[in-house]
Amino acid sequence: MSNTPTHSIERIGRSIYPLRVFGFILFGISILLSHSKTESPMDTWSILGLITCVVYPHLAYLSYLRNELRETEIRHMQVDMALIGAISALIHFTPAIVLPYLIANSAANYALRGMQQVVKGLALAFVSALLVGLFLNQTIVHETQPVELLGPFFYLIIVTHYMGHLAYTRGISLLKRKEEAEKMAHLDFLTGLINRRSLFQQIRQNDTQTDAETPDTTTIIMVDLDYFKQVNDTHGHDHGDAVLVQVSRLLKNSLRDTDLVARWGGEEFLVLLPKTNHKQGMMVAEGLREKVANGVFSHDGIDHKITLTLGVASYTCESDFQQTIQLADKALYEGKQFGRNRVVSADDGSSVRETLPCKSKAKDATPA
Q: Catalytic positions, please?
C-alpha cells in the first residue's frame, strides 16, 4: 500500500510488495472487526472487500513483474488509494481507522512523486468512498473499540519508519553516486588515470601549498607511444586500447605515490614529479623508457613491442606551468624527429639535450 525507491527507482514494486500485503491484511481485519462491533452479518460487499484485501496485493505484484517500471507502481499506488476509499465505506467511514491508512499512503505517494501524486490519490479515495457509500447507503460510525485502532496505527508506524529508512538509504545511494560521478569526471574512462582537468586542479593545489621562498622543483615528462597508430591499423582498436591500459598501468606502478601520471590524449601521457629536479627527472624518464622497451604487451594471444619517446622539462612555483608543458612537448617532438625511443631534455627552453638509449636495448625494443 505504500511505496518509495530503494536500491533502484525502477524496482520499487518489489520492495513495496510486503508492505502492500501487510496493509491490506490489516484493512481486511478492520472489516471483520467493524461487523463484530455492529453485530451485523457479513454481506456480499463485505465478503468481496475481504477477498480484495487478500488477492489484490498479489495481482498488483504480478502486474509489476510484467512491467518493472516506476510508472507501473505509480498506477498501483492510485489503485491503492481508490481501494482505501471503497473499503472505508464498508467500515462506515470510521475516522480513527481510515485516517492512518490515508496518512501513511499519502506519505508514500509524496515520496514517490510529490504533492501532485498525493492530490490525485486523495481525490480517488474520496470519489470511491462517496460512490460506494451512496450505493450501500452507509452511515458514519464514530465509535471505535481499542482493538480496532491497533492495526491502523501499527501500519502507520511501520510505513513511516520504513519510509524514513528508504529515504535515508536513498540519500546515501545518491551521495555515493554523486561522489562516484565526481570521481569519474576526473578520470580517463579507458585507463583509469587522472585526466587533464584533474591534473591542472592538483597542480594549482600543489602550487598554493608550496612555500614561495623555498620553491621546490617539479619535473614534467611528456610521454608518447612510438608508432602506436600501427597497432590500431594492423590489429584493431581493441588491441590499441589494451596496450594503452597496460602501458598506463606500468607507468603508474613505476612511480612514487606522490607522483602523478595523466592521460593527456590519444597515446600521450603526462608524468608530474613533485620535488624532483631536472637530473632526477631525466633518470626517472629513462627508467620508464627502459621498462616499456623491455616489456611485452599482449592481447588476444598477440604480443606487442612498444617504445616510448619522452620529453622532460622542469619548473618551480615561480615558473609558468603551461609554458613548461610546451617545453616538454617541444622536447618530445625533437625526440620524434631524432628517431624515437629516447629521452630528450628541454633545459629551460634554451636548448634541447638528447639522451640516447643503449644500443643493445634499442635493438631489443623493436617499435610497434
A: 267
